[in-house]
Amino acid sequence: MEKYGAGSIVVSDYDPNWPILFEQESTRIKKALGSFALAIEHMGSTAVPGLPSKPIIDLLVGVPSLEEAKERWIEPIRSLGYNYVPEYVSWLPGELFFRKGPPGPWTHHVHLMEPSYPRWEALLVFRDYLRAHSEAAQAYANIKRALAASSVDDIEAYRTGKHIFVEETTAKARAWRAHAARSMMAPD
Fold first, then answer.
1. Which candidate, 174, 182, 158, 170, places its Cα nearest to that of 11?
2. Is the model's pLDDT at 82 over the cut of 90?
3. Do the Cβ atoms of 103 and 6 come closer than 8 Å?
4. Integer Cα distance of 185 and 9 in angstroms
5. Percentage of residues in the chain with pLDDT exceeding 70?
6. How many CB atoms lie within 10 A of CB 106?
7. CB 52 within 8 A of CB 144
8. What is the CATH number of domain 18-180?
9. Distance (Å, whole) CA 107 – CA 70
10. Of 2, 44, 89, 104, which is most buried, counting CB atoms within 10 Å of its CB?
11. Which string of DSSP letters, residue by residue, matches 25-40?
12. What mean pLDDT value characterizes the chain?
């Protein structure tokens, strides 16, 4: 069992400071990585207004080369107070994962990957769908709260419990986005 930081998993009510915390950290990461950071997106539940979440700011950082990131950019991110977690490569292939904060609970996660990696699109379309569909966000909130209560400090059980909802909602989100794109292209 993979334990969650320093105690039980807590899903907090939405905090309107989360976008501000994202912007502050995004600025620090942009400064550390310079032009190597192609894009920095706020992702995960803290990026969806009104959605309860573990109070961890997730930053999705696009880079032109994951191999170059492994060779040259781990230390600059560490200098910002992040710990690189190489053992997550088996769970998160195609990205470098960092977390910041006392040894749990963490305050920030950085997911470094190439924007062409399929997970990049999946994370953003899921976020955008929840932002646009309050009923889906509410269903996700209910699942997260129930899983936090039943998983206690087993983060793997928490992640696994969300998996089906995330996969199904991501599929709906892709269809939603494709429909919106077709609607924009249709002649009047």
1. 158
2. yes
3. yes
4. 44
5. 95
6. 20
7. yes
8. 3.30.460.10
9. 23
10. 44
11. HHHHHHHHHGGG--EE
12. 93
The answer to whether the CB of 62 falls within 8 A of the CB of 37 is yes
Question: Which sequence spans correspond to the domains of the chain?
Answer: 18-180
Q: Is the pLDDT of residue 186 over 70?
A: no
β-bridge pairing 108-113 and 57-62? parallel
Angle between helices 118-132 and 134-151 (to 10 degrees): 110
User: Regarding beta strands 96-100 and 57-62, do their DSSP bridges make them parallel or antiparallel, or are they unpaired?
Assistant: unpaired
| Statement: residue 188 has pLDDT above 70 | no
Distance of CA 183 to the CA centre of its chain: 29
Instruction: List all residues 6 or more positions away from 57 whose beta carbon is below 8 Å from its beta carbon.
Output: 18, 21, 22, 25, 42, 44, 46, 107, 108, 109
Decide if pLDDT at 37 tops 60. Answer: yes
Distance between CA atoms of 18 and 177, rounded to whole angstroms?
25
Name the region of 44 (left: φ>0; alpha: ψ -120 to 50; beta: rest): left
pLDDT(181) > 80? yes
CB 119 within 8 A of CB 127: no
* pLDDT tens digits, 38-72: 999 999 999 999 999 999 999 999 999 999 999 99
CA distance 34 to 73: 11
Alpha helices of 35-96 — where are they, by DSSP H? 66-72, 74-78
Residue appearing with tokens 């710990």: 83
